[in-house]
Structures are given as C-alpha cells and as structure tokens.
TrEMBL record, chain A:
<protein>
    <submittedName>
        <fullName>Rhamnose ABC transporter membrane protein</fullName>
    </submittedName>
</protein>
<dbReference type="GO" id="GO:0005886">
    <property type="term" value="C:plasma membrane"/>
</dbReference>
<keyword id="KW-1003">Cell membrane</keyword>
<keyword id="KW-0472">Membrane</keyword>
<feature type="transmembrane region" description="Helical">
    <location>
        <begin position="116"/>
        <end position="137"/>
    </location>
</feature>
<dbReference type="InterPro" id="IPR001851">
    <property type="entry name" value="ABC_transp_permease"/>
</dbReference>
<dbReference type="GO" id="GO:0022857">
    <property type="term" value="F:transmembrane transporter activity"/>
</dbReference>
<keyword id="KW-1133">Transmembrane helix</keyword>
<feature type="transmembrane region" description="Helical">
    <location>
        <begin position="212"/>
        <end position="230"/>
    </location>
</feature>
Automatic annotation (TrEMBL), chain B:
<protein>
    <recommendedName>
        <fullName>Autoinducer 2 import system permease protein LsrD</fullName>
    </recommendedName>
</protein>
<feature type="transmembrane region" description="Helical">
    <location>
        <begin position="66"/>
        <end position="88"/>
    </location>
</feature>
<feature type="transmembrane region" description="Helical">
    <location>
        <begin position="170"/>
        <end position="191"/>
    </location>
</feature>
<keyword id="KW-0472">Membrane</keyword>
<keyword id="KW-0997">Cell inner membrane</keyword>
<feature type="transmembrane region" description="Helical">
    <location>
        <begin position="129"/>
        <end position="150"/>
    </location>
</feature>
<feature type="transmembrane region" description="Helical">
    <location>
        <begin position="257"/>
        <end position="290"/>
    </location>
</feature>
<comment type="subunit">
    <text>The complex is composed of two ATP-binding proteins (LsrA), two transmembrane proteins (LsrC and LsrD) and a solute-binding protein (LsrB).</text>
</comment>
<comment type="function">
    <text>Part of the ABC transporter complex LsrABCD involved in autoinducer 2 (AI-2) import. Probably responsible for the translocation of the substrate across the membrane.</text>
</comment>
Length: 327, 328
C-alpha cells in the first residue's frame, strides 16, 4: 500500500511541489509562511474547482474547452442580477450561478450525447458562442466594483479559520468529488466509460449519458466559480478568465489525468492546479517577469505529458492487473 | 462518442447524384446565399476593391487550414499554429532590428515555422504523445517565448519591399496574398487527391494500424504533416506581419480555433479519414464573406464569433439531427 503510494503520480507531484516550495523559501522565507500559503491556495481555488470538473470530463474521453467562457458568462449574469436587484440573498445568487452553469454544461453534454458531435468541436463552438453572448447582454460594458452590493462582494472573502470562503469551497469540492469518484456508481461509471467504452456498454453503462453528466458537473463547477470569480475580483467584463481553459487542461495533464480517458484522480487534479498556482504566485516574488508565465506553463504541460506517457507505457491501464499486483 | 458503423451500399449512387448531394455542394449553396444576402444588406458590398479587401479576412488563415486539413484527416491536430505565427513574427521582428533584409526575413519566417512544426512532430511521432495535449503545450510555449522576448513592446520598421507580401497587388484588385492562397490551394489539392502521399494520409486517418501493415510509414507521414503545418504557419506569419507592419506577442490570438472551424466547416471529419481541399476552400470563402458582410453592417467582431461558433456546431448538428429525425 505504502509502496504503491510512493510510486504514484500524486506522490511525485507532492515531491515536486515540496521541492519547489523549498527552492523558493531558500531565498524568500516569507513565501512559505502559513498566511501566505493560505493566500496562494485561495488564489488557486478557481483553478482547482475547474480542474476537478475538467478531470471528470477528460476521464470520459472528452474535453471541455468552454469552461472559462461558461465562467465568464455566469459571472456576468450574476453581477447584472446583482446590479438590478442588490437585495437578493447570496443563496439565491449562488443558486442562479450553479443553475446557469449547469444548464450551459448540459447543452454541451446534450450535443455530445444525443448528436454524437466530437466534444472538441462542440466546446470550441460553445466557447465562442458564450463569449459572444456576454457581449450581447452586457453591451460590452463592465460591471464595476462600486455597482456591486457589499454582501455580493464579501461572500468569497469572508475568512473562516484564516482561509477565505473561496478556499473552503475548493476544499469542500475536492472532498465531495473524491467521494463521488471513488464511492458511487456514477463515479466509477466515469472511469469505465473512458477506460473502455465498449466494455462499459456491455456492462450496462450508457457511455453517452455518462459523458452528459460529466459535462453537467463541469458546467456546474464553472458556474459556481463564475460568481466567486467576479465577486472576488469585484469586476465583470467580456474577457475575464480569457484563455483560462488552457490552464485548466494543463492542471489536469500535470496532475496525471490521461487525455485518452480512464485515468486520473481528484487529488491529481488538485495537485496539478496547486503546482501551476504556486509557480504563478512565486514568479513575481523571485523577480521573474510575469511574461515568463505562459512559456513556463507550456513547458510544464509538455514535460508532464511526456512523463505521463512513460509511466503509463509499462503498466497499461487494466484494472485487473493492478488488483493482481495488490494481492 | 459512439462508434460509427460504415455501411457499404450494394448499389453505388451515380456520380452526378454523389456530386449533388455532397457536402461541398451544400456549402457552395450556403456561400452563394450569403453572397446574395450580403449584396442586399449593404450597398458597399458589390465593389471590386471591397471584395478584394474581404479576401484578406481568410487568405492567411486558409493557407494554414489546408495543411491542417491534411493533419486532421490523418487523425492528428495542431492547436499551436497561431503561436507559431507569433514566434515566427517575433523572430522576423528581431532580425529587422539587426538589419536583415527581405530575403533573410522570409527565410527566417519559414525556418522558424519549420522548426516549430518539427518540434511538435518529434513529440507526437517519436515520443508517441497525444497531439492535442502536445500542441496545447506548445501553444503556450511558443507564444510564451514571444512574450519573454517582447513583453509589452512591439517590433516595427519592416523594409518596404517586405510589406509587399501583405499589401502588394499582382494585377488590378488581385492581391499577392490571394494569388498565393490560390496556388497553395492547388498544391494541396494535388497533394491530397492525386498523389500516393495523399492516399496514405486518408489510409492513416481511417485505420492507422491497417495502414502500417500495408507498408505505409505512418509516423513519417505524420511527421511530414506537422512540418507542413509549421511551414504554412511560417508563410502566414510572413503575410500577416507584412500586412500589419508590426509584431506584438498577441498577434493572431485565437486563430487556431478559427482555422480548425474552417477545416471542420469544410467537411473534414474531426475524427479523421475524410475531407477534401475543395470543401476547405469554400469554407474559407463562407467564413470570409460572413465576417466581411457583418463587418459592413457594423456588427462587432465578438458578435461575429457567435455566428462562427453557431456555424461550426450547426453544420455538423443539422445533418445529424436530420438523420435522427428520419430514423424515427
């Protein structure tokens, strides 16, 4: 059991993260103080939330490139709702955000499930459509900080035990989805549908429907993050989180999620997101121009996917084989 | 994704019927429809110079789309093309600051394109990595290098002879770019439809293992396709840089999606194995006409992207909806 953990992708990533933190702290001890680490975690929380949803989608052999556009659209809608009705309780705002995100995810899922359109085509299309809709409903205008109500802005920043609510939501999502992925039939169906669609069909799993649920979950998380994003940064406009979908896919790939489907864990997605988040937060501290960030995350993706391929080549992904080794 | 079952009919349809019912014919009708609608919607549309201007909307993207079509037919994809443009343009910009002349600039643009294509190709064919992840990675990497070099600056000062590649006219309203687009389309049509190499591309896309056992060097063909895509990105980088006259690291942002849209709209199956160059040519015109027509009507660019996105999903969804509806 312990041996299996040490050789696992997650352990490797934890090692890499500790090494990274060690390197930074050798010159800038202030970076690894608990307060700052909590800050980094909080800053990475949107990426973690989306990476968990994306992980599930990728597990089923799909990809969701519309998450960032979904986030931006939901964020714009809730901030406009907030401007129109400042008195609305946060619970209602949250319900609107999650509900709208879920609907947008379902739209992707339906096209993939019912019409069997390749997911990359569907989400490329919806990505541009969602962004366009934001422009249409907002008329290209920004919703600024002073137009948002104080309670709307305060929710994700309220601190509980030193960590803002935003960070706690990421933690809760990670726990909930770890349980879902390992302890429920739907969770196992995601692995089966991606690992071997034919076998899954014969086992009575509706692969298309499973993919639909994956997109729905990804959409719901994107919608939730949409509200948290606009309220945390206290601004909403067409281009928020532009290109963020690539960071999300990068976090998954770094976290050991196989793009061929069937392999990946929530913990991996979490660690992949944290790895990118720490790099992003550390760059200004170690005085490297933020312009380096894009190239570094690109390099990280390529190295990670090369490592993934090496690791998967020997083992194969037959569940039975792993079970045999375990006994 | 459900598995597609290919049924082989016992009686082939006549050639004429095949032609009439093909994707290309449908697309051509759409293009003509858009053309007519445009000429009614705006009085400025039917003007030789305006129409000539409209071709710039798609010529550079289409050059890459031809190579991308072959790549997608073979079952791979390259999302890093726009970033290759950025990197090649940055390299040319840096060379200008060192006083390199026009021939040197062209060589540098093509060379950087080839190198980037080779980098993608090695990662995919030698190391056996999935192309979508590799090129998402290199998409950040290549543009990232441009950002490192340029930051928030821009390169300018391209020689006048260089700008001819983007702004020059060969004859009357026929621009150099349009001629280049036509020549490249012809080359790729011959390459895909009339050569052994083209047949190999289809074979790989339909059944890579079968192609291998038929004696096709699958990895080598794929590597060449990545090289070609890189090279065409280099060509597009030369035209675009010459046309804009400056280089910023954000040059050609989002083009990879428009290029993939163009290819898929042209009837190339994103799952590989089928598609024609003629389809991509018509799709290029459709997209160019839509964006230009909407532009004349003062529709903002971002709203056009809704139309492009809806077009992408719609053209694939409608035939499938139709067949689902007919099966009932």
């Amino acid at each position: 059991m312990l041996k299996r953990f040490i050789t696992s992708r997650e352990a490797l990533l934890i090692g890499a993260i500790v090494l990274l933190l060690g390197l930074i702290s050798s010159r800038f001890p202030g970076f690894v103080t608990p307060a700052n680490l909590a800050n980094v975690f909080n800053d990475t929380s949107p990426l973690i939330l989306l990476a968990v949803g994306q992980m599930i989608v990728i597990l089923t052999k799909c990809i969701d490139l519309s998450v960032a556009a979904n986030l931006a659209l939901t964020g714009m809608v809730v901030s406009m709702v907030n401007v129109a009705a400042p008195g609305l309780p946060i619970a209602v705002i949250l319900a609107i955000a999650v509900g709208l995100g879920t609907l947008l995810g379902m739209f992707n899922g339906l096209l993939v499930w019912k019409l069997a359109i390749p997911p990359i085509v569907v989400t490329l299309g919806t990505m541009t459509i969602f962004r366009g809709i934001i422009f249409v409903i907002s008329d290209g205008k920004w919703v600024n900080s002073h137009e948002m109500s104080p309670t709307f802005k305060a929710f994700p920043r309220t601190e509980i035990l030193g960590l803002p609510v935003l960070g706690w939501i990421a933690i809760i999502a990670v726990i909930v989805f770890t349980v879902v992925m390992t302890r429920t039939t739907l969770g196992r169906a995601f692995y089966a549908a991606g690992g071997n669609p034919h076998a899954a069909t014969y086992a009575g799993i509706n692969v298309g429907k499973t993919q639909f649920w994956a997109f729905t979950i990804s959409g719901a998380l994107a919608g939730l993050t949409g509200y948290l994003w606009v309220s945390r940064f206290a601004v909403s406009y067409v281009d928020i989180a532009g290109g963020f979908e690539l960071d999300v896919v990068a976090a998954c790939v770094i976290g050991g999620v196989s793009i061929m489907g069937g392999i990946g864990t929530v913990a991996g997605a979490l660690l992949g997101a944290l790895f990118l988040g720490i790099i992003k937060n550390a760059l200004p501290v170690v005085d490297i121009s933020p312009f380096w960030q894009l190239a570094i995350s690109g390099g990280a993706i390529i190295i990670a996917v090369a490592l993934n391929a090496q690791a998967n080549r020997e083992k194969g992904r037959i569940i039975l084989k792993r079970a045999e080794q375990a006994t | 994704m459900s598995t597609t079952v290919r049924t082989i009919p016992d009686r082939l349809r006549s050639l004429l019927e095949q032609r009439l019912k093909s994707w290309e014919t449908l697309l051509l009708l759409v293009a003509i429809g858009i053309f007519i609608a445009n000429s009614f919607a705006s009085p400025y549309f039917l003007n030789a110079w305006n129409l000539s201007d409209a071709t710039f909307n798609f010529t550079e993207k289409a050059m890459i789309a031809f190579a991308m079509a072959l790549l997608i037919i073979s079952g791979e994809i390259d999302l890093s093309v726009a970033s290759i443009i950025a990197l090649a343009s940055t390299a040319m910009g840096a060379a200008v600051q060192m006083g390199v002349g026009t021939p040197g600039l062209v060589l540098i643009g093509l060379g950087v394109g080839l190198l980037c294509g080779a980098f993608n190709g090695v990662l995919v064919t030698r190391m056996g990595l999935p192309s979508i992840v590799v090129t998402i990675g290199t998409m950040s990497l290549f543009r990232g290098i441009s950002f490192i070099v340029l930051g928030d600056q821009a390169f300018r000062g391209y020689p006048a002879s260089f700008s001819w590649f983007g702004q020059g006219y060969v004859w009357w309203v026929i621009s150099f770019e349009f001629v280049l687009f036509a020549i490249i389309a012809l080359i790729y049509a011959v390459l895909l439809h009339k050569t052994n190499f083209g047949r190999a591309v289809y074979a790989i896309g339909n059944n890579a293992t079968g192609a291998m056992f038929s004696g096709i060097r699958v990895q080598r063909v794929k590597f060449i396709l990545f090289l070609l895509t890189g090279l065409m990105s280099g060509v597009a980088a030369i035209c675009l840089t010459a046309r804009l006259g400056s280089t910023r690291p954000s040059i050609a942002t989002g083009w990879e999606l428009e290029i993939v849209t163009m290819v898929v709209l042209g009837g190339v199956s994103i799952l590989g194995g089928s598609g024609t160059i003629a389809g991509v040519v018509i799709a290029a015109f459709v997209m160019g006409l839509v964006t230009f027509g909407l532009g004349l009507l003062n529709v903002p660019g971002i709203v056009m992207s809704i139309v492009i996105g809806a077009l992408l999903i719609g053209v694939i969804a409608l035939p499938r909806l139709w067949s689902v509806w007919r099966a009932r």
